[in-house]
# Entry
Amino acid sequence: MSAAVAAAAAAAALSRSTNTSSGSQSPPHHQHQALMPPSPPVLSRYESQKRRDWNTFGQYLKNHRPPLNLSRCSGANVLEFLRYLDQFGKTKVHSDVCPFFGHPHPPAPCPCPLRQAWGSLDALIGRLRAAFEENGGQPETNPFGARAVRLYLREVRDAQAKARGIAYEKRKRRKPQLENGSQESAVAINGSN
# Structure
């Protein structure tokens, strides 16, 4: 029994004895609610996925030969983990010699390998990077933010875009359009014409 549950039980027992001595009794269903431990907070989908990813990486480190400690983990180990995950991928990535290389929708099947999609790997690294720091890691020693990992993700993105014949272009942020009245008031506030 945890200390919190024991304290709640003691408080409930004290409350019952006080209520009994004063002549009023609360209904029995209220007594059971005081003894129940609070339920754990419901995690968001992102937080649940981040926890699963962190546990998966921890298991990978344990199964590594020789076993790796997180404090000794480097960007090279992260790259090894990403390459290991490729075997579970579902994205067809055509090789340079494949007749369907550069075709977004190939007309027939081919023997090219299935890999993890770039977007999945990018999101995974983002979650693991956050989890590392939440679990006590220092940002400057975060292996998920290593230069080698960033370069690998860029290479995967470019290779997958070429294999599908789709150029990846970084989206440019648009500046919010101000209405004429808003622009005039902004000019008046700044004091410039």
User: Anything to note?
Assistant: The beta strands are 91-92, 114-115. The two ends are 72 Å apart (CA to CA). Residues 1-11, 13-24, 185-189 have pLDDT under 50 and may be disordered.
